[in-house]
Automatic annotation (TrEMBL):
Pfam families in UniProt: IspA
Annotated gene: yciB
Keyword entries, A-Z: Cell inner membrane, Cell membrane, Membrane, Transmembrane, Transmembrane helix
Membrane topology category: Multi-pass membrane protein
Name of the protein: Inner membrane-spanning protein YciB
PANTHER family with a match to the protein in the record: INNER MEMBRANE-SPANNING PROTEIN YCIB, INTRACELLULAR SEPTATION PROTEIN A-RELATED
Transmembrane segments: 12-30, 42-66, 73-91, 103-123, 144-162, 168-185
One annotated Gene Ontology cellular component of this protein: plasma membrane
Protein's organism: Pseudosulfitobacter pseudonitzschiae
Family, as annotated: Belongs to the YciB family.
């Protein structure tokens, strides 16, 4: 996965976010329908989940083929989707798929926390090329992101356990993405304080 290749950014965005949007649209179309397959009734959510799994596998595989690499986050997400989505379809129980974001955020938060206990920032290894920061800045950002991930895990549990499936789908499709975007947007002061000279030079006019 080291032979990195650049691809059209619109194509990359389509492969990254397309499966999630297809899931959302398909759910809205099929949410009130029940499908009888092999003598068992499946509601629209389960059927859409069953279709989402191979779609995500295909899009992730296409990204790997076109770019020559996958991030650890993409690989972990795919594995958990296959496991928890597969359990939901196999057992005809939507709770497993709804738990998937919880497991993802607990995993990422736990990994960041493990790195912090060892005195290192695993986040730096993943994102150093995108956000040049001093080591102290990476440690602060890693701690904040760890707590943020744990908070999202708790929030996902609260939403799917107390709200309707449709509310959870809206939350999963839009709420989580907006929350992550807002988190990094709120770290502007940290980036200014701990940005390296390389980062500052990139923003200095010629």
């Amino acid at each position: 996965m080291t032979d990195k290749r650049e691809i059209n950014p619109f194509l990359k965005s389509a492969l990254d976010f397309g499966p999630i949007l297809v899931f959302f649209v398909a759910y809205l179309m099929l949410k009130d329908r029940v499908f009888t397959i092999g003598g068992t009734d499946y509601d629209g959510f389960i059927v859409v989940t069953a279709a989402f799994i191979p779609l995500l596998i295909a899009s992730t595989g296409a990204l790997w083929y076109l770019t020559g690499q996958l991030s650890r986050m993409q690989v972990a997400t795919l594995v958990l989707v296959v496991i928890f989505g597969g359990l939901s379809v196999w057992l005809n129980d939507d709770r497993f798929f709804k738990m998937k974001p919880t497991m993802i955020y607990l995993l990422f938060g736990g990994l960041l926390g493990f790195g912090l206990l060892r005195g290192t920032s695993y986040l730096k290894y993943v994102m150093e090329g995108m956000m040049p920061l001093q080591d102290a800045g990476w440690m602060i950002l890693t701690k904040r992101l760890m707590l943020f991930f744990f908070g999202l895990a708790v929030l996902n549990e609260v939403i799917w356990r107390t709200q309707s499936t449709e509310t959870w789908v809206y939350f999963k499709t839009f709420g989580l993405s907006i929350a992550v975007f807002a988190f990094f947007l709120s770290q502007g002061k940290l980036f200014q304080t701990y940005g390296t000279e390389e980062a500052k030079d990139d923003t200095t006019p010629d």
